[in-house]
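Sat 14:20. Reprocessing the chain from the morning session after the first attempt stalled halfway. Input below, unchanged.
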Amino acid sequence: MKPQDLARIVPMILAAVLCGCGNTRKEPWETVPVKQGEIEVTRLPDHSGLRVERIRFFSVEMGEPRFFLALLPKMDGNFEEILILNHGWFDRPEYLLTELKADAAYSRLLERNAVRPAIVILPDIRFPDFFRENSDRFPFPNYLTLVAEECATVASRHYAVPFDRERWSIGGFSFGGHIALDVGRRYAGRFSSVSVVSAFADDEWTYWPSRQPPPGRLDAKGRGKQTLVAPGPVPRLLLACGTSDRFFSKMQGLHQIFMKSNINHDWSQAPGGHTWKYWSTALDQMLPFHLGRETGAARRAGE
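Finished this time. Tokens:
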């Protein structure tokens, strides 16, 4: 492991110990078995006027039941789009409601007619070992299959949203932004827009190259650090970070990489740290970026 990686990971491990790793604790309903191929749908109390559902399924990738929360506007007819929004390393999907108030922000933007009605998916991306998820020994982390394939497939089938690229987008905060970026570069043929907030990237990643680079070291399934699952054009990109965030230099570096590579993207920096308070302001940018009326009009004009 590189010294700079140790400098980044060790504080997070210590923080996890101090926090008691409470985010990995399972609620009683999480231990109820789910058969492979079946899904369990639970209607939860409404949040900010939105319908909330919890979808559980058996993840082959993780070898256990997993779940995601779904926020649905209260309206007739089918929804045409899905936005996947990933939480941070120390969080649970529910924290995006209780701490970030993502439901209130989304509902407020819907009332203003500032965003298109879509399904917002909050997947459970908790993992017991941060090192395993970022080690060179695992060049294709299992969060990729879990989020971009399993969660997306369950949501697509349950809500009848086909895998048309323009219908799907992904974003996240901190570790969730790391996941969104990794998914976006490997599944560009599936996701049309990607937002990365207060996150970090692997220094060896490549971004939408014109030619497929060598995959590098392979895992047991023949997948490497540069393996592309669904190649496609560069998605619309949003990078955002607070100027007091511990990952600010990482995000600035990613911004510079994209500029030097002529990769079009939006870059936003503002006062704030690695906090829910800053992320709530970023959320007011993220949702319109993915689902804004103007971006929808531009998309339709290009079709």
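The chain has nine helices and nine strands.
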